[in-house]
Here is the input.
Amino acid sequence: MLTLKKNTQHTTKKVYELVPIQDFSKPWTDKELYEKYPLTQAEIEYIESMVRPMTNE
Here is the structure.
């Protein structure tokens, strides 16, 4: 979404107006995020194939 509004290296507040605000005061699971944002099954599968799991080390 960010690239829809940002076409140069210069950044203003308006560039981020399409980026959703996320509450970072709690930990989120992938499942919770998939439910919060209306992702299709194809989008979820793409994310799962591209993003490696993180470890809590």
In short: The two ends are 31 Å apart (CA to CA). Residues 41-50 form the longest helix (10 residues). The CA atoms of residues 8 and 15 lie 10 Å apart.
